[in-house]
Write a structure and sequence with these properties.
- The radius of gyration is 21 Å and the shape is elongated.
- The chain has three helices and five strands; from the N terminus they run αββαββαβ.
- The model has no long low-confidence stretch (mean pLDDT 81).
- The chain has one domain: Outer membrane lipoprotein wza fold like.
- The chain has a five-stranded mixed β-sheet with strand order 2-1-5-3-4, covered by helices on one side.
- The longest helix is centred in the middle third of the chain and has 7 residues.
Length: 107
C-alpha cells in the first residue's frame, strides 16, 4: 500500500487496524439431534465431543462407534474414522480429537 501512495505522498505511513475477523465454521451432519453449521468459539479450540454436544448429541438411532470426520487439507479430502463409544468410555485416557483445520466437517 505504501508503494501505491508514494506516487501521491512523500514518505507515506500506513496503519491498519483489524476491527473484526471472519468467523470460522464447522458442520455436523448425520444422526445427531441438531445437524447444522456451527461457529467455532472465539477461543479457537474445539474437540470432537464438544462439537457433538453443540449438535445436541447423538440421536436415538445413531451408531456412535461410526463417526466419520472429513477435512480438506491443501485441496485434498482426508477422512478419519473414530469410535465414539471408545472415546466416551471413562477408562479411555486419550484426548478427544481437536479441530486443527478450519475446513472440517463431522458426518
Amino acid at each position: 500500500m505504501e508503494k501505491l501512495l508514494k506516487v501521491y505522498l512523500i514518505n507515506p505511513e500506513v496503519s491498519v487496524e483489524i476491527t473484526s475477523y471472519a468467523k470460522q465454521h464447522f458442520t455436523v451432519l448425520g444422526q445427531v439431534n441438531k445437524p447444522s453449521i456451527f461457529d467455532i468459539p472465539d477461543e479457537g479450540s474445539l474437540n470432537l465431543l464438544e462439537a457433538l454436544g453443540m449438535a445436541g448429541g447423538f440421536s436415538k438411532i445413531a451408531n456412535p462407534s461410526k463417526i466419520m470426520i472429513k477435512r480438506v487439507v491443501n485441496g485434498q479430502e482426508i477422512v478419519i474414522r473414530v469410535d465414539g463409544k471408545k472415546m466416551l468410555d471413562p477408562k479411555n485416557t486419550t484426548e478427544p480429537i481437536r479441530r486443527s483445520c478450519p475446513e472440517t466437517r463431522l458426518a
